[in-house]
Amino acid sequence: MTLPLIIRRSLRQHLLSTVVTALSIALAGGLLMTVWVVKTQSQALFAQTNSGFDAVLGARGSPLQLVLNSIFHLEASPGNVAAEDLQYIARHPLIKAAIPIAVGDNFKGWRIVGTVPELFTKIEYAPGKKYALAGGRLFEGTAKEAVVGSFAAQALGWKLGDTFHPFHGLTYVPNGDQHPDVFTVTGILAPTNTPVDRVIWIPLAGIQSMSGHDPKHATEVSAVLLQLRTPTAGVLLDQMYNKQGNRLTLAWPIGSIIAGLFNKISWFDEVLTLVAWLVALVAAGSVLSSIYNSMSARQRDIAILRALGARRRLVFGAVVAEAATIGVLGSLAGGAVYALLLTGIAAVIRAQTGVVLEPFAWQPVFAWAPAALIGLCALGGLVPAFKAYRVPVAETLAPTS
Amino acid sequence: MSLLTLSSLKKSFMAPDGGRKMIVDVPEFSLAAGQQLALRGESGSGKTTFLHLIAGILAADSGSIRLDEQDMAVLAEPARDRLRARTIGYIFQTFNLLQGYSCLENVLLGMAFGAGADRARATALLERVGLGQRLHHLPRQLSTGQQQRVAVARALAGRPQLVLADEPTGNLDHRNGREALALIRETCREAGAALLLVSHDPEVLAAFEDVRDFAQLNRAASEVAP
Q1: A–B CB contacts, 8 A cutoff, strictly below
Q2: pLDDT number for residue A268
Q3: ipTM, 2 dp
Q4: Closest alpha carbon within chain A to B118
Q5: Which end of chain A is more exposed for a tag (fewer CB within 10 A), N or C?
Q6: Where are the domains of chain B?
């Protein structure tokens, strides 16, 4: 009980510096965990996000752009795929499913994508997970009807039966062209925690025959989402479209294209991680200096404890333990900093991409970041602890005589 | 059988001119168990150093300090700390209470490194010195007389065989000083602890049957005294 009492009293005696240093540790811990979780989880989640498809076939161009456009609904489409190409790939023996999509319109920034009902009836967007409707029914054939992703529906406040005029283009221009066509919301999808949630889905023919769209391209699609029968089919199709062909691009495999994107921007994570570690170092340094600066005030207490029979190693250990305790308190508060930061960041990522992070799923960083911080604090405590170790008892107790 | 037996005890310090200055040179000294002895000593006579040597707070240059079948003068520092915690209570002129700790915690720390913390005993000791109502007060909330009483309770907390008191009344007014002295003597007697007190105050010294002159005991004293 002696050591905890000494630590507690010492922390209380220097309450202000205890609180300030613990807060700096909290900030460092929160940042470290946030950066780490955002990095690892977003990388893993984005690389897994394929809406159930193995490959995307699109116009000649960047595979990354194709994937971002057709799976993540973020980029512009690099061009169109002709009706014959769609027919061909749809009947190809290596293809299990081919779902065409067409883009080109939005409603107040929410993307409108044309597709076929089979996307929702035949495709599992993740292993074992089929699309479900939270309400209503799917759109029919060529009707001016829409099935709305859950996030978009929530954000727009749409209910079944609501109607809207699409805006032309992928990005929303408030006074831009609005098509006269009126679409009716017939269904709202259950949440999938994928980019699908952010999309307003309408029949393929709806986009193709939208008034104002060039009738010459009415049979074309923006991309074809593909499920392959075997993994090796990708190699053959890659050979056929990417190596020998020159009109179309096959983006395959989707996961490694996204992983490639993350590799390209990995310096960004590294900078953030470096910043987090620097904050941690500064925080540990502040533990060191705040205890060190109070050493002359503590010297007398240490000498008294020594006179009462406390050994050098106990007063040494008490200072190290006090520094580590600041680390523990800071790490606990760091959990709160993390929860705040990541909840906010997860909301932003969800709004921007539809990918949903899980801030509170267990991550190894929750163990090692606090452990590293507590270790750093204890390390910082070593410096003042040596000073405590060397307090001259007799001189401190009786400076005269 | 003596509780404390010193022989040829020497301690010198580095002098400003680089040489060594002998502070304590006591050929022999002893104290019986339960004995109460006052040493007359002016400030600067090396009496505090003498008590620090007996308590093992300072290491002796040579000689022996036999206490509880061990020799404080030859033990390594951790063993001296242990021996001090187990056998010695120390009362300072400036009280040296831990300011961030309550009265009760101060007394508990007086036993923590030796006999082990015992709340009931600490409470009883504070009641004995008349501070039963002040257990959770901080030292600064007490008068100086009360603070010295806490220090007395703390010195006795570890069931010491020997209590060392260094000018225990030096920072107290006349009345509080007299009361503190009486309390120290009574509680040491009750606890069966020997008392070795140093003072220059004639009134304090007059209270003791056994009084010795530290200047006669310490051969280095003539060189040190101003």
Answers
A1: 84
A2: 87
A3: 0.93
A4: A1
A5: N
A6: 2-99+161-224
